[in-house]
Design brief:
The chain is globular, with a radius of gyration of 19 Å. The chain has a seven-stranded mixed sheet, with helices on both faces. It folds into two domains: 24-193 and 248-257, Vaccinia Virus protein VP39 (Rossmann fold); 195-239, no CATH class. The protein has nine helices and seven strands, in the order αααββαββαβαβαααβ. It is of the alpha/beta class. Helix 2 (29-41) packs across helix 3 (43-55), helix 7 (194-211) packs antiparallel against helix 8 and helix 7 runs antiparallel to helix 9 (227-240).
């Protein structure tokens, strides 16, 4: 039997062996503490928070959070913003999220009026969308002329929420898809660099025996022994986010605008 024949057929893979806990909605100060700890140990989440803290600081008007999950980034919005979170009715079964003040929709009907949104927020969602082009077209249609899209996607990230994780995007593909949808002033920035990615992968190896011990005391003990290394990697990885270099990164933060009028170009 060939080596290829003895390896797993991942098409038949329907669940993750290692699955970190889902994010929690903010209900108390304790949730803020837990979220801060999560961002330190989850560089994907921490890097997205770092970027969106800047991108959302000046948001105003209606902010539509599409695929909002636990509404993680809602606390970053200023009081001038009117938040609306929507998600698919499959969010509980597929991703483990069911938040009371989220509007859940079925199919592709978001129940959002055309040109009614000032900022469309879409974080770590596009990789889970089977048909990204119609989805981006809906985001474009929801925005008012001159409205802004703020979007994040992973790049150096594990296969997650299996089997509902379909794509990894490059800056080239993001620019192409967004311009096809009608957006202008597309800007794609990297979250992290090769050092950040190396820390992120090494941290995952430290966390696996701790969070996925499966009742095995030896594995749990190994996880505890690796905690100092985990902490050191978290600090190095977080500090590395300050440097912008290389072609490998954790993911991308994307901004774009709907033009003020047909045929016009909006420059940021």
């Amino acid at each position: 039997m060939s080596t290829h024949a003895t390896r797993r057929n991942l098409v038949e893979h329907q669940a993750e062996q290692f699955k970190p806990p889902v994010f929690r909605p903010r209900r108390s100060r304790w949730d803020d503490v837990l979220a801060a700890g999560r961002r330190l140990l989850d560089l994907q989440a921490g890097s997205a928070w770092r970027d969106l803290r800047v991108e959302l600081a000046t948001a105003s008007g209606v902010v539509l959070d599409v695929g909002c999950g636990a509404q993680v980034f809602r606390p970053l919005l200023p009081p001038t913003a009117r938040y609306r979170g929507i998600d698919t009715c499959d969010a509980r079964d597929r991703f483990g999220y069911a938040v009371p003040d989220t509007e859940y929709f079925e199919g592709s009907d978001w129940n959002v009026a055309p040109a009614s949104v000032d900022v469309a927020l879409c974080t770590e969602v596009l990789e889970h969308i089977e048909a990204p082009e119609p989805f981006l077209g809906q985001l474009f249609a929801a925005l008012r002329p001159g409205g802004r899209l703020v979007l994040t996607v992973p790049f150096a990230a594990r296969w997650h929420f299996i089997p509902y994780d379909y794509w990894r995007y490059t800056p080239s593909s993001l620019d192409l898809l967004l311009r096809r949808a009608g957006f202008h002033a597309v800007r794609v920035t990297a979250r992290g660099n090769p050092v950040t990615v190396a820390c992120y992968k090494a941290m995952a190896l430290c966390l696996i025996p701790l969070l996925d011990g499966r009742g095995n005391p030896a594995r749990r003990l190994l996880g505890v022994a690796l905690l100092p290394l985990l902490g050191l990697l978290a600090v190095i990885g977080t500090l590395s986010l300050r440097a912008d270099w290389g072609e490998d990164c954790l993911g991308y933060t994307v901004t774009a605008r709907r033009p003020l009028a047909a045929g016009s170009d909006v420059r940021s």
